[in-house]
Amino acid sequence: MSQVGSRPFNEQTVLITGGSGGIGAAISERFASVGMNVVIHYMQSHESANETARKCMKHGSQVLTAMADLRSKEQILRMQEKLDNHGMMPDIIVNNAGVSHFGLLSDVSEELWDDVMSINLKGTFMVTQQFMQSMIHQKYGRIINVSSIWGISGASCEVLYSTTKGGINAFTKALAKELAPSGITVNAVAPGAVNTSMMANFDAQEQTAIANEIPAGRFAHPDEIASLVYFLALPESGYITGQIISPNGGWLT
């Protein structure tokens, strides 16, 4: 295994927000597969977080689950204190937590706009701001933000969601420049259609129509997204920063 200073890569700690299901669970298990220390954040999915934790522990990984509403700085600070008390401050942050929204912009209330913005964009900002301090101190770290193809191209009837992910992309590019002198990389993974519960907004006929638009002819599997996140976290990926990488089966080129 590659290492940072005297600490091998597989002895580092990764924090995955929204790490209990779908893409987040796949990412958690990918890092656990090499024995890394894994922190699985969740907001409400307690049982899913525990199930993912059990799968991770089968690899011999040290696992911690942490509940926090990412709209609340107070709860993020409590999560940070918990991680610090367990000696599991992250070397790698994967900002995966997020909610989707499908509907006409004319039907979006101010309250809904603020709520989705707070979870998807403000939550990413607050988690990163709090946990990057230890990375700056050690002059090493990886921040990987899970965005979306719609943050690049935009999507009709997903204006709110697209806006939050476009914000994540700009956040990624700007922060990469700010943290590069501290040995920290910041990148975003912007998947196309992935076979997760987020696709539940579409019925079977609509899902088939979407898959037919994709040159690869199918949705991505969460493990394929997790593999890219893992690659960006490696020490040897240290010259890749400020990039928005979109695994989308050729849907957007």
From TrEMBL:
InterPro entries: NAD(P)-bd_dom_sf (IPR036291), Sc_DH/Rdtase_CS (IPR020904), SDR (IPR050259), SDR_fam (IPR002347). Pfam families: adh_short. PANTHER family: 3-OXOACYL-(ACYL-CARRIER-PROTEIN) REDUCTASE, 3-OXOACYL-[ACYL-CARRIER-PROTEIN] REDUCTASE FABG. Belongs to the short-chain dehydrogenases/reductases (SDR) family. This is SDR family oxidoreductase. It comes from Paenibacillus agricola.
